[in-house]
Hints:
Strand content: 15-25%
Largest sheet: 2 strands, antiparallel
Radius of gyration: 14 Å
Shape: globular
Amino acid sequence: MTETQIRALVIYRAGGRCEYCHIRNAELPHLHFHIEHVIVKQHLGGDEPENLALACDRCNFYKGTNLSAVDPVSREVVSLYNPRIQSWEDHFELVEHQVVGLAEIGRATSRLLNMNAENRVQLRRDAESAEN
């Protein structure tokens, strides 16, 4: 596959939304979305589509090279959410435009990626308004 084909596949597979915080690109075209490595090359991740995800610039920035984070409830170190092998709905839910972690992985990931910063919550509100 060419780089363009891989990019198109990743965007299509993600439904045009950040695979972490679920902000949609279509309703907020001013946001920058990245094709990011779920497991970065530094940790032996590759460029194959099975290791790539669509991420908004903020989630990509906060995730960085991290593979794990501390769950704010249990204080245990847990793996971050992996959109290639885990279902978003198993780990998160949207409640009044906030991403709520349902268990350790969801809580740790949403905290590390700062998914509920006020500007992120407002972007989800804006996206919902654009849909209606």
